[in-house]
Amino acid sequence: QFPLGRRLPCDIYWHGVSFHDNDIFSGQVNKFPGMTEMVRKITLSRAVRTMQDLFPLEYNFYPRSWILPEEFPLFVDEVRMLRDSDPSWKPTFIVKPDGGCQGDGIYLVKDPSDIRLTGSVPSRPAVVQEYICKPLLVDKLKFDIRLYVLLKSLEPLEIYIAKDGLSRFCTEPYQEPTLKNLHQVFMHLTNYSLNIHSGNFIHSDDANTGSKRTFSSILCRLSSRGADVKKLWSDIISLVIKTIIALTPELKVYYQSDIPAGKPGPTCFQILGFDILLMKNLKPMLLEVNANPSMRIEHEQELSPGVFGNVPSPVDEEVKVAVIRDTLRLVDPQKKKRKDVHSERQDVDSRRSKANIGCNCFWCCRCQAPEQGPEEPLPAGPAALPSLCLKQVFPKYAKQFNYLRLVDRVAALFIRFLGVKGTTKLGPTGFRTFIRNCKLSNSNFSMASVDILYIDITRRWNSMGIDHKESGMCLQAFVEAFFCLAQKKYKSLPLHEQVASLIDFCEYHLAALDEKRLVCGRG
Ligand code: ADP
Fold first, then answer.
1. Centroid of ligand 1 to alpha carbon of 32 (angstroms)
2. Closest atom, ligand 1, to C-alpha of 275
């Protein structure tokens, strides 16, 4: 614990909940500013949807979602249209209150008219999502996966994924949703916090049985049935990287606001909990991201009638201790100063994975399937810790994913024109300067039209009641305006090419401007 009044700074600050460190000027903090806001159901859905607009195929791992109440009419219309075009489509929808957790307030409906309404629209902000009706079952039960992901750095982007996670099971055999079973939470919702109250919940004594198991035990079972587990891992890695790519633009806006560049401040890292559902065909689907995943390694149990106590949970311990241990090893400030067993091991690891081309090493390491690399003895020593469970996936696979980082580049333009450090919204003057410096106005697009575009889009985003603390244009509104400009300028291309072309155009003019200023400065 950080005692009140302590003067000496720490190397690492480990917060329980969220980033709140305006008075820390060095070291590393285990939370990013804005992460809690970014992974709320509505914000995450919006961020993923922006990416789905640009890259629909790459982002088809997130169920079709609508934001309530504002998109309720759109939801009703789209469902009607989809039903008209395919009468055999018999969807189920899941309604999830924004900011809810542990299954709180979640319910299933068969028809938009079943959404709980006050007046003519749903009252509480929520996300309504297409329900995945055909999940993969094990022992006839639905389950989801909790995977731990370390976001070690935002700039440059560094992502690690834990080789093992948890599988959390429902406690009633699964049936596809019908009007009769829609309300059976123990059949449809995999939340541990709900299922623990079912009489069927089984506390797991080992990794392979019970209502909470290791993910690797599920993989072993799938592998023994002939499933392509390497492909599954590679799909999960893609899902994680793409989701983080969707979150980074706004995270960067929060970051520069709380920790302005050029001023002393801490750096950040964060362990995230990814909740993933496997479909029957083994396709992983993202359910949600948790900014503050539980790191408990014990659970409550009735020790004798009416007497409850905490007992160790071996499955949680196996997975979570490794995640915390490796996170500390990776962010260890002394790491660079010592050439210790850890780095030697990493050398060995990297030599092995280089010899193991085409294999992401997740599965081989875990199940002891033969690796193709040479077996080198690991160096022994006083600090001979188990090998890393957190595996780097970015920048390792950056080449495959960098083309998706368009909104990141739009965010860089936005941040450049924010002007006053510490803000997260762009004023009308900043927007005009952006248009002028990037040479985007012309006889067809006057500065008066620029002002109208700014006012229209900003007003709409601000009326959604996202953040009333500051006035001005938020990043999402800027992204919308940018897409509009791109569509206007490069008419017949697909959206992602229009946006990429406009980014190139803006970056070119800004680089020329910087060069000119540099020359003038020297002069
Ligand atoms: P919470 O934060 O309240 O846990 P989640 O989004 O994780 O909310 O949803 C709770 C549970 O509902 C999930 O663990 C999963 O079992 C189920 N679920 C959520 N979304 C879907 C979906 N689109 N399709 C099928 N099941 C879902």
1. 24
2. 7
Q: Is residue 171 within 6 Å of ligand 1 at its C-beta?
A: no
- Which of 432-437's residues contact partners 24+ apart within 8 Å by CB, and which partners? 437/509, 437/510, 437/513
- Walk me through the domains of the chain, giving residue ranges and CATH numbers: 35-63+132-300+311-334 (3.30.470.20), 403-516 (1.10.238.10)
Q: How confident is the model at residue 466 (pLDDT cuts 50, 70, 90)?
A: low
Confidence label for 323 from pLDDT (cuts 50, 70 and 90): very high
Question: Strand ranges (DSSP E) for 367-521?
Answer: 390-394
CA angle 191, 46, 323 (to 5 degrees): 45
28-29 and 12-13 beta bridge pairing: parallel
Cβ contact 118:90 at 8 Å: no
C-alpha to C-alpha distance for 148 and 66, rounded to whole angstroms = 27
- Of 288, 241, 249, 235, whose CA–CA distance to 99 is shortest? 288
- The per-residue pLDDT for 339 is 53
Highest mean pLDDT among 11-20, 250-259, 295-304: 250-259
Write out the two tokens for 168. Answer: 């959390």
- Unique residue bearing structure tokens 């109208």: 452
Give dist(CA 45, CA 314) in Å, integer: 34
> Quick one: average pLDDT of 200-223?
88
Q: Indicate which atom in ligand 1 lies nearest the CA of residue 105.
A: 3
**Is residue 374 reached through a cis peptide bond, with omega within 30 degrees of 0 on the bond before it?**
no
Cα separations in angstroms, 94 against 65, 117, 402, 467: 9, 15, 33, 26
Tell which atom from ligand 1 comes closest to the C-alpha of 193: 4
Element (H, E) at 153: strand 141-153
| Ligand 1 touching residue 287 (CB < 6 A) | yes
102 lines ligand 1 (CB under 6 A): yes
Are 127 and 65 contacting, i.e. CB atoms less than 8 angstroms apart?
Answer: yes
How far is Cα 366 from Cα 219, in angstroms, rounded to an integer?
10
Closest atom, ligand 1, to C-alpha of 129: 23
Tokens 């995450």 belong to which residue? 44
Decide whether any atom of ligand 1 lies within 6 Å of the 141 Cβ. no
Q: Is the CB of 106 under 6 A from ligand 1?
A: yes
**Sign of the Cα pseudo-torsion (81, 84, 87, 90, in order):** positive
